[in-house]
Write a structure and sequence with these properties.
Blueprint lengths: L8 H17 L3 H7 L5 E6 L6 H4 L7 E6 L9 H13 L4 E7 L3 H8 L6 H4 L1 H9 L1 H4 L4 H22 L1 H8 L5 E7 L6 E8 L5 H15 L8
Helix pairs in contact: 5-7, 9-11
Length: 227
Amino acid sequence: MTTTNHELQDLLDNNKRWAAETEAGEPGFFSRLLKQQTPQYLWIGCADSRVPANELVDLLPGELFVHRNVANVVVHSDLNCLSVMQFAVDQLQVRHIIIVGHSNCGGVVAALKDLRVGLVDNWLRHVQDVRNVHQEWLDTLPGASRVNALCELNVLHQARNACHTTVVQDAWARGQPVVIHGWVYGLHNGLLNDLAMTVDDASAVEPSFRRALAALKARYPAPGAPA
């Protein structure tokens, strides 16, 4: 009779080992964690299993509040994302919201190439909207560059969307310090890259977006363009 690991015992064993090692390395860690959650950062990233938020920035549990979805999208109709943002800003008083995309994102590939993969096609229309805005420029790039260029464009647009949410706008209006950031993670080298979309005030949203967009396009010159 063939046995199958329906109970995922290997994962449970990993958890026991991790908990024991963590407590041994820092006695009382879990007792202190139980009493407080005071992260300074909200990470809004892709659900891709290769992009583990806490590990990438070397932060412990309790130090990073995280929301993830396919292709790191922030849209005004997504009550899940908005609820996370509202709790993070209003209750936890986070100071930084970081929108993090990553290279070779499968959701971005599907949006770029109009691939039909199922229900998620509807979600990826948000990324296709970004593609459509920049389609003429994207068409000037070599095929190998288009996916990562759209990954970065998507981060900039989703960071701008985050700036325009009522959660962030209300925080700024009452003088609460909240900074929006746009980053991209390189699967090929494990490094995070700041796309220079950094905004701490409602009046700075569009100027920051335009500067970041210009810098992005400068990194992806079309073939034959002057260096």
